[in-house]
Amino acid sequence: MIEYRIDRGTGVATYLQIVQQTKHALRLGLLEPGDRLPTAREVVEATAVNPNTVLKAYRELEREGLVQARRGLGTFVTKSLGAAAAQSPLADELADWMKRARTGGLAREDVAALFSSVLEHEFTEGEQ
Amino acid sequence: MSREPAALEARGLVMGYGRRRRPVLRDCSFRLPTGRICALVGPNGAGKSTLLALAAGVLRPTGGTLRVLGAGPAEARPRIGYVAQNRPLYPQLTVAATLRLGAELNRGCWDRESAERVAYGAGLDPKATVRSLSGGQRTRVALALALGKRAELLLLDEPMADLDPVARHELMCALLAVVVERDTTVVIASHVLGELADVCDYLLLLEEGQIKLAGESEDLLTAHARLTGTSPDFAPHTVVESRATGRGHTALVRVQGPLDEVSRLVERPSMEELILAHLRNPGAPALFTGSASPAPSQEAAA
């Protein structure tokens, strides 16, 4: 089961951190359709955030059609998020590109900066 | 909008200790709906502990009324868990005997599992006498009693003050787990603003015996903004705090009307910034969001 890690220093609203971490887990295939998200009790017991914050995050995920709350049973994942991306040819191409960058003499920070600048440019809407 | 009884509802509450001294609470009015986790903040001497003691029925107000769970504080007492600042316990009893006493006094509703979990969480010896405990360990036992009681309303006076960071986190998690299960209302008086921001969804800011901010954290935050721009004039917004920063001016304002996002940088303040700005500027007008205004008998809540 997914464990949330709340970072109080980022300025990102706590409920958004839960939303983002859930999506991240969906993308990485750590969560799959049918999996149950932790209950509000389980989350507050581990993170000491307000229970309503957890419920707000779950409502947001439900609104986006990623999970579904089933009364008395819990909240379940209903959709995967581009889990295919990890296995697609794009992944190989990116790995290949990284290799060339590295052999070309770019440092890790250079690659990261380049990557995020192109990312920003291509996805100007700031889609999470 | 019909309302169920609030966890706390104060109208014109006054509390003075002795006739010659300035009252600690002066015309204090607010409402705290049930099911919330509320931070009660304010500078030293603002009246936080007095307010909690009144709600717990330990003190009686000099004037005004305070309703607790729809009843008088004395009647509501069996439904309240109160952890006073001095953690009153019997020093000669062992921890185990203290919990047995709690079970005896709350027969039929005692939650032994929660109480023992909180009391013995950090390897506290059941046979140790209360007298021999450190401040933080006493807090543990006092909190265990309050949670074991299955109270509908928990009044916690500086519960985290004498705990180490690990114990703080552990006890806060244990507290929230119980609260979420039973939909308990919690009032936490505290100075530790950063930690409270994630835990609480309601705020009461007490200043010089009066409530200055009251309401859902979310509503209070959206009612304010941090503006930065070249002009020192922030009208029509109400300025809570402002200062010059190099060529620019930045202010925490109470939003009145549309925000001009073209000539100014508009940011959302954090709960901590909001509280600090109000603590530093006692002159800012009071703000109550809808659910925090004491029930108006006729007129609709704003």
Automatic annotation (TrEMBL), chain A:
<dbReference type="InterPro" id="IPR036390">
    <property type="entry name" value="WH_DNA-bd_sf"/>
</dbReference>
<dbReference type="GO" id="GO:0003677">
    <property type="term" value="F:DNA binding"/>
</dbReference>
<keyword id="KW-0238">DNA-binding</keyword>
<keyword id="KW-0804">Transcription</keyword>
<dbReference type="InterPro" id="IPR036388">
    <property type="entry name" value="WH-like_DNA-bd_sf"/>
</dbReference>
<feature type="domain" description="HTH gntR-type">
    <location>
        <begin position="12"/>
        <end position="80"/>
    </location>
</feature>
<protein>
    <submittedName>
        <fullName>GntR family transcriptional regulator</fullName>
    </submittedName>
</protein>
<dbReference type="GO" id="GO:0003700">
    <property type="term" value="F:DNA-binding transcription factor activity"/>
</dbReference>
<dbReference type="InterPro" id="IPR000524">
    <property type="entry name" value="Tscrpt_reg_HTH_GntR"/>
</dbReference>
<dbReference type="Pfam" id="PF00392">
    <property type="entry name" value="GntR"/>
</dbReference>
<keyword id="KW-0805">Transcription regulation</keyword>
From TrEMBL, chain B:
<dbReference type="InterPro" id="IPR003439">
    <property type="entry name" value="ABC_transporter-like_ATP-bd"/>
</dbReference>
<dbReference type="GO" id="GO:0016887">
    <property type="term" value="F:ATP hydrolysis activity"/>
</dbReference>
<dbReference type="InterPro" id="IPR017871">
    <property type="entry name" value="ABC_transporter-like_CS"/>
</dbReference>
<protein>
    <submittedName>
        <fullName>ABC transporter ATP-binding protein</fullName>
    </submittedName>
</protein>
<dbReference type="InterPro" id="IPR027417">
    <property type="entry name" value="P-loop_NTPase"/>
</dbReference>
<keyword id="KW-0067">ATP-binding</keyword>
<keyword id="KW-0813">Transport</keyword>
<dbReference type="GO" id="GO:0005524">
    <property type="term" value="F:ATP binding"/>
</dbReference>
<dbReference type="Pfam" id="PF00005">
    <property type="entry name" value="ABC_tran"/>
</dbReference>
<dbReference type="InterPro" id="IPR003593">
    <property type="entry name" value="AAA+_ATPase"/>
</dbReference>
<keyword id="KW-0547">Nucleotide-binding</keyword>
<feature type="domain" description="ABC transporter">
    <location>
        <begin position="8"/>
        <end position="233"/>
    </location>
</feature>
<dbReference type="InterPro" id="IPR051782">
    <property type="entry name" value="ABC_Transporter_VariousFunc"/>
</dbReference>
